[in-house]
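Database export, one record per block. Field names are fixed; values are copied verbatim from the stored entry.
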Amino acid sequence: MWGLKQLGTTKAQAGSAEAFEKIDREYVLNAAKAAKTDDPKQRLVYLSSMGASPTSPLLYSRSKGLTELGLAGMFSDCTIFRPGLLKEADRGQHRLGEAIYGKVLDILPFGKDSYSITVKELAKAIALAATQGSANLAPEALATKEDPKKEGVSPFWVIGNKGSVGLARLWK
């Protein structure tokens, strides 16, 4: 059994840092806890963000990093995606910074696979990772094992933007 989990917002949409963390972390962890079963083969795939770190001074990155640790504490088979800029995302509002960053990436002759991915490509990569499980991830995933060395938190696998693009290319 596998599950996919994504829920999030922005601080501006949430109205405050506290509300943001409640939606971005607490709701995600509560939903994962509710979905957790006793099945030892259960796995979880979580869509996080490039730069996620529980020690980040940035609210968004710190929240994502703390959520990753919380999920790894619940699931022994946990795969975390940390993509860069999500292109072709229908968010319902204009994000000027993302639009500018996307245009800059489009004109650069290098690094596209490292810093951006379309939502469609990312969905393919996530679906493949969910069906493969962390023990059988294709080499194209470029997955790295993170071991937080924290009691009650299992090591987990992280797939960055370049690995996400690589996995998406395997989709048939």
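Remark 1: The mean pLDDT is 85.
Remark 2: The chain has seven helices and seven strands.
End of record.
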